[in-house]
Amino acid sequence: MNTYLLYSQIYVSLTSWRGKNLDKQDVQPLETIDIEQFQTDLISWFQKEQRELPWRKDKDPYKVWVSEIMLQQTRVDTVIPYFHRFLELFPEVKDLAQAEEDQVLKAWEGLGYYSRARNLQSAVKEVYEKYGGIVPNTPKEISSLKGVGPYTAGAILSIAYGIPEPAVDGNVMRVFSRILSIWDDIAKPSTRKVFETAVRELISHDNPSDFNQALMELGALICTPTSPSCLLCPVRDHCAAFHEGTQHELPIKTKNKKQKHVKMAAAILVNDKGEILIQKRPSKGLLANLWEFPNIESTISYVDEKALLEDRFASHYSGNVHLNRSIGQLEHVFSHLIWNINIYAGTIDDVSASELQNVKFVSIEELDQYAFPVPYQKMFRMYQLEKE
DNA sequence: AAGTCGGGGGT
DNA sequence: ACCCCAGACTT
């Protein structure tokens, strides 16, 4: 019963399995999937071909946790340097639990999706206080932690604790959509459950860690989105899509919508001591709790904009504001919107502005102690280039 | 279920 | 341009 899982049995347990073929008049003989052989082929390949990654050096649940949060929607090569720096700053649960949020955000600067960092620290605090610093090892407890969703819960449980839970990410859905010929739209939230059910049937109970990691490694190295290297695939004998030649049609994924365009204006304002005005963003929403330069959303025409900005800034910061010059403009693309920013430089009195909450005057040397979103980093670089 | 939330790299 | 990436949370 454990050794072979008849294809028809899978079909019974998953109504959407091979749903496309239900309508085909010419149904081919049902294949069987040799589960043990599949596990062996997959895991041996992984043990031989896996990349050396910093979070694979040991299975410390805290390190696995940090890596999994960083890897959400983020490529391995991007994460590696962040992972090293983060663990140097916060080697253990206690260190992250007791850190200043500003320092955590600074360590996350440039990585994006900053709520990951704030949720991670919040959850680590809970682990430190409620679980004595030990990352919990039950699905219920770990899933209740802030920022730990179905994927991350399964990843930590399987990789750090060897518990056979599915960890279904984009890789796993792509890989199994091909192996099992699943034609559900993987862009729909409900589809993830189809793949979780599949993984529960197929996962190795001897080595859930390598099984789950192998699926993701396979998706990253072999079973890639546009041009899968099927001839190098260790499980192509088990793959329905390879058998049918449909690997380029799978997975099914509906397109995402276009970004909205937002016009902005922002300024580098300097006081008479040569210090620059910065402010902390609100604690909710886009780029929450990061720092920025004074800015407004603006749909005003370019000629009127400068006067409007001087007015708005002067009244908001209660000081005399002078915009000397326009430095240029820059575009920054987010996943759901596009900022087009007109950039100015000028001066401001620091009498009242420094009394405002979340507003500071800092020297150029102090600037890099604060976490800035990339668009404002770009903006400051333009300012420095223009000044020379 | 749809929208929000970053940034970079590949094609 | 458009796609994708070791997704989660809010509405």
Automatic annotation (TrEMBL):
<dbReference type="GO" id="GO:0035485">
    <property type="term" value="F:adenine/guanine mispair binding"/>
</dbReference>
<comment type="function">
    <text>Adenine glycosylase active on G-A mispairs.</text>
</comment>
<dbReference type="Pfam" id="PF00730">
    <property type="entry name" value="HhH-GPD"/>
</dbReference>
<dbReference type="GO" id="GO:0046872">
    <property type="term" value="F:metal ion binding"/>
</dbReference>
<keyword id="KW-0326">Glycosidase</keyword>
<dbReference type="Pfam" id="PF14815">
    <property type="entry name" value="NUDIX_4"/>
</dbReference>
<dbReference type="GO" id="GO:0006298">
    <property type="term" value="P:mismatch repair"/>
</dbReference>
<dbReference type="GO" id="GO:0032357">
    <property type="term" value="F:oxidized purine DNA binding"/>
</dbReference>
<dbReference type="InterPro" id="IPR003651">
    <property type="entry name" value="Endonuclease3_FeS-loop_motif"/>
</dbReference>
<dbReference type="InterPro" id="IPR023170">
    <property type="entry name" value="HhH_base_excis_C"/>
</dbReference>
<dbReference type="InterPro" id="IPR011257">
    <property type="entry name" value="DNA_glycosylase"/>
</dbReference>
<dbReference type="GO" id="GO:0006284">
    <property type="term" value="P:base-excision repair"/>
</dbReference>
<comment type="similarity">
    <text>Belongs to the Nth/MutY family.</text>
</comment>
<keyword id="KW-0408">Iron</keyword>
<keyword id="KW-0411">Iron-sulfur</keyword>
<dbReference type="Pfam" id="PF00633">
    <property type="entry name" value="HHH"/>
</dbReference>
<dbReference type="GO" id="GO:0000701">
    <property type="term" value="F:purine-specific mismatch base pair DNA N-glycosylase activity"/>
</dbReference>
<dbReference type="InterPro" id="IPR029119">
    <property type="entry name" value="MutY_C"/>
</dbReference>
<keyword id="KW-0227">DNA damage</keyword>
<dbReference type="InterPro" id="IPR000445">
    <property type="entry name" value="HhH_motif"/>
</dbReference>
<keyword id="KW-0378">Hydrolase</keyword>
<keyword id="KW-0238">DNA-binding</keyword>
<dbReference type="InterPro" id="IPR015797">
    <property type="entry name" value="NUDIX_hydrolase-like_dom_sf"/>
</dbReference>
<dbReference type="InterPro" id="IPR003265">
    <property type="entry name" value="HhH-GPD_domain"/>
</dbReference>
<protein>
    <recommendedName>
        <fullName>Adenine DNA glycosylase</fullName>
        <ecNumber>3.2.2.31</ecNumber>
    </recommendedName>
</protein>
<dbReference type="GO" id="GO:0034039">
    <property type="term" value="F:8-oxo-7,8-dihydroguanine DNA N-glycosylase activity"/>
</dbReference>
<comment type="function">
    <text>Base excision repair (BER) glycosylase that initiates repair of A:oxoG to C:G by removing the inappropriately paired adenine base from the DNA backbone, generating an abasic site product. 8-oxoguanine (oxoG) is a genotoxic DNA lesion resulting from oxidation of guanine; this residue is misread by replicative DNA polymerases, that insert adenine instead of cytosine opposite the oxidized damaged base. Shows a powerful dicrimination of A versus C, since it does not cleave cytosine in oxoG:C pairs.</text>
</comment>
<feature type="domain" description="HhH-GPD">
    <location>
        <begin position="70"/>
        <end position="221"/>
    </location>
</feature>
<dbReference type="GO" id="GO:0051539">
    <property type="term" value="F:4 iron, 4 sulfur cluster binding"/>
</dbReference>
<dbReference type="InterPro" id="IPR044298">
    <property type="entry name" value="MIG/MutY"/>
</dbReference>
<keyword id="KW-0004">4Fe-4S</keyword>
<keyword id="KW-0234">DNA repair</keyword>
<keyword id="KW-0479">Metal-binding</keyword>
<dbReference type="InterPro" id="IPR005760">
    <property type="entry name" value="A/G_AdeGlyc_MutY"/>
</dbReference>
